[in-house]
Amino acid sequence: MEFRAAYHPGQSEFEGFRDFFRDEGYAVEIVSPEQLEYRNRVLRKGSFEIDVVYRRVGVQEFLIRFDLSHPLVQAYRDRSVCVVNSFRSELAHKKAMFGLLTDETLTGKFPAAERKAIRDHVPWTRLVAASKTTYEDKPVDLPEFIAANREKLALKPNDDYSDLHTYFGWEMDAAAWDRGLKQALRAHTWCRSGCSRSAACFR
After folding, report:
1. What are residue 172's phi and psi, to 5 degrees?
2. pLDDT in tens, 34-55
3. pTM tops 0.70
């Protein structure tokens, strides 16, 4: 499922998937969210009834155009369809999740073993803003910290579908990194670190 504007007939991998499943004997259609309706606990596009949805459209993009009364959301909530790439799965692709996991004010009451696992495996992450925070239990001014630690930080969009740029500090000179930091501050970016050279700051 994708928006019509993003789907180009003859140029999409969706057509390959559709043709494959049709060859295997399954009824498959490529549909856009605006084509869906939900009645009598059945999700449909016209007369075509839908049991399984492979969701390609992102949650953020979906919610810009629709609200929670959309037929897909209703069918999903009622468990009338199986959404292969469910809405909940998108949380794993949000870089900001690292910010929640590495915020000591939120994880301070986690069991010691879980806090250690987070420290060992989850990059430290913060929203890029003109603010104070802590890094390795020490207070830091966040923009100053990012500017001074270019070689071990990266600036990345929170969402893989964002049109914002990714900046790897170790591949940039100081002037270019400073420009990236200024853009991140304007965009209210997420900042992450703690994963050796792959430490990062996220929008």
Report:
1. -125, 160
2. 999 999 999 999 999 999 999 8
3. no
CA distance 113 to 98: 17
Tokens representing 74? 């209703």
Whose structure tokens read 């929008």? 203
Would you say the C-alpha torsion 185, 190, 192, 197 has a positive or negative sign?
Answer: negative
Radius of gyration of the chain measured on its C-alpha atoms: 21
Taking the CA atoms of 94, 64, 50 and 81 in sequence, report the sign of the dihedral they define. Answer: positive
Q: How many CA atoms lie within 13 A of 127 on its CB side?
A: 9
E strand spans, the chain: 37-39, 42-45, 48-50, 52-53, 82-83, 124-127, 132-135, 138-141, 154-156, 167-168, 190-193, 201-202
Can you read off the two tokens belonging to residue 59? 């949650």
3-state secondary structure of 154: strand
For residue 101, the one-letter residue type is L
The DSSP H or E segment spanning 95 is: none
91/127 Cα distance (integer angstroms):
17
For residue 135, the SS3 value is: strand
